[in-house]
Amino acid sequence: MNGYYVDEGMGNHLIMYYSEKENKVIAVPIERRNLCQYSGRNDRAGVEIYERDRWETYGVVSFEDGKFMFNWENITEDLFEIEDDSEVKENTFD
After folding, report:
1. Using CA atoms, how far apart are residues 42 and 74, in angstroms rounded to an integer?
2. For 82, phi and psi rounded to 5 degrees?
3. 11: left (phi over 0), alpha (psi -120 to 50) or beta
4. CA angle 41, 94, 35 (to 5 degrees)
């Protein structure tokens, strides 16, 4: 499903998409905090890495200061400087 994020203001956030089955535009309300950005990278299994993904090494991907970071314990590294030897386990919303 390809959709578009819509911020209606006053705290209303939607994902909107066209349903061929129903022949109309569908608007699905969402919480803004549940949206995650794709980092542009994949893990070693080919799974796309998104903001707030948890890795098997018990770290979490975040988006800070205009770049994707990998955070675990008390360490934060640029996601693009990390080796591709880990796998995404889940997203914090799964």
Report:
1. 24
2. -95, 145
3. left
4. 60
Q: DSSP state, 5?
A: E
Interior CA angle at 91 toward 34 and 55, to 5°? 145
The whole model's pTM is what? 0.50
Determine the Cα–Cα distance for residues 22 and 38; give it in Å rounded to an integer. 29
**How far is the C-alpha of 70 from the C-alpha of 51, rounded, in Å?**
9
Q: Nearest to residue 39, comparing CAs of 69, 65, 60, 59?
A: 69
Q: Order of strands, edge to edge, in the sheet holding 53-55?
A: 75-78, 67-72, 60-64, 53-55, 88-91
Query: pLDDT tens for residues 40-67?
Result: 888 888 888 787 777 766 778 888 888 8
Listed in sequence order, the residues at least 6 apart from 40 whose beta carbon sits closer than 8 Å to its beta carbon are 68
